[in-house]
Fold this sequence. Notes:
Distance between the termini: 109 Å
Mean pLDDT: 82
Shape: flat
Number of strands: 33
Number of helices: 14
Strand content: 25-35%
Low-confidence stretches: 67-73, 479-487, 501-516
Strand order of the largest sheet: 3-4-5-6
Largest sheet: 4 strands, antiparallel
Helix content: 25-40%
Amino acid sequence: CRANDRVIEIYAARSEVEAQKKRRRRLRRRREKQSVAANAAEKGESKKRGLLDDPESDDEQDKAESKEDQLVELSPDMVKAMDEFEFCGTIRATHKIRGFAFTPALERGGGIRVVVALATNALEVHSLPKPSKNTQVAVTSEKVSVLDMYGHPTGIRSVSLSSEDSMACTVSKNVVKIWNVSSRSCLRSIAASSSGNTSCYCLCAAFLPGNMHVVLGTREGHLLLIDVASGDIVYREENAHDGAIWSLDIRQPSPGQETMSLVTGSADKTVKFFEVESQEGENSRHPMLVHARTLQMSDDVMCVRFSHSNDPTKRLVFVASLDSTIKVFFDDSLKFFLSLYGHKLPVLAFDSSDDDTILASGGADKSIKIFGLDFGDTHRTLYGHEDSITDLRFVKRTHNFFTCSKDSTVRFWDGDRFQQILLLNGHASEVCSLAVSRTGAFVLSGGMDRQVRVWERTKDIVFLDEERERELEEVFDKVDGSKRDENTSDVLLRAQKDGDEGLDADDETDEKPQSEAAVKQSILSVSAGDRIMEAVELADEESKEIAAFKKLQEDKSGDNRRAPNPMLFGMDPSQYVLWVLRSVKSVDLEQSLLVLPLKHVERLMHYLILLLRAGKGIELCAKISVFLIKAHQAQIVANRTMMTPLRELQTLVRMRTTEIRDTVGFNIAAMRIIARIANEKKNERINYEEKSMKDIWAGLGKA
């Protein structure tokens, strides 16, 4: 059991025989102590009274009786916890304990090993020897091994890849880890700190060209350079910004230019450019950062990126600020070029394609916007994420890009066809950063669940229609009170409660049906509801055209014929609605009717009245009428214009169902008569000799 945050107490469970033996020994010792105390009280050897001595005053007598009343249930003869469990020792961990587990095998000499999971995302293995029977000294554990190099203790804020995709750098709070991508092993675990050994909260990271150093941006406004080979911090640019550095990007050297440039965006409303140069003296092999230019912005900078053009005159700098816009500047002169707007909330991530023709951005408004970089126009707005979009990365040499969000999903999009390709689930919490390989063969994602997931591209063919259907099925299967994902009985009960607010709780529970249709909302039911709505709208248009044509014929005499709508297949509007209703499967009929809005329900009832007047589809029309009135009872009752059609509908339903009942009863009676006559004559013998074959063929063949 856990005694506190860092201590685990180990107890051994005795067998039933050992527990009884321990109980008898405890009782024997108790009797011995009582006898010794009684003898001492008789001889007067001790002036001190024990727990079993008689009280000397009335107050002590009352206290003793009250204590006895409280301890009546705890009989000494009962088996206690101390009889069944034996204390073995204590395990002390270095940090707070989140969980522990015993190893399946015992050590030599009967000792045990316990694996302890700590709050720092580390594992410790402790060895606890078997306590000796002769000694009374408490046994403490010995730490055998520690596994603290793998994994991050807190959520991952940034993920970046080296130029050849062999190494990855992940950042979380004050820990930086370098990984081997192919073997998935951790190469370096580095603590980020300033010159005074004060820990720094890291927010962003990137590999410098050559993949020998990593540059970090911190919440304190510092820039740190880390040597990958040694794991040391070789350079610190302290107070590079007055606020948190939210984003940084590396400009690759152009042909004919040897200098590398670094751009940073901070919460102090500035964008700063640094040149990467070599240090002097003994550290000449390590780089350093030299501040070159500063771009002042009107709001906090959330993200900053360089374009991919190698021409210095065409290279652009994209800056997203807190005013929900993306401003585009020329890199060489820092002159303003474009302002990309459209987001309702601040832009948190964006990236441009390799050919610098489009730019995709995602923000806190859960939307993705694709802009053209020629004129700054918005090509399309995409929706799909359920929370803020935290990062966006293009795949090299394509217009496809990945996005991650706080809804714990990673999505793959087509920037040319403006549609989602894949939905990747796996993270348990919000995803903060993405890194795409230069070939697009794999993607790294890191989030607040302290996981770094590797998504590899396979050779399987993706069918977008199947992906859409699968996504819709997941939406329908998700149980959510805000969505209308409920069965038929719940809809009817809710409508009844809206109509009868005075029902008691017991009556409401009694009204719930014991059985219901084994159906739920699906893609087929939604599509069937859409077809019914389209049929009602087409029928309304056709009815209006017919009425207008008749009015025109009354005003102008003539034999002009009107061409019917080919979408109705030559049927009347009411017949076309009936044909569509019959095409819906009976299993999906109720759920498809629930999709209809109240306006279409009123028009559908109008066509049901017309069909019942003509005596067509009586059973189906009666079933649909009853269900719609039950499902929309409160809205229909509140609408006074529906009273007259409802009375007519009630009269027609009763009249037509009575006619069908009479017809069915008449047919059943006739079938019973036929069955009785056949039963009476089935045992009669037919004498074929008395029958003349001429009578059978008589009169045949004559005109």
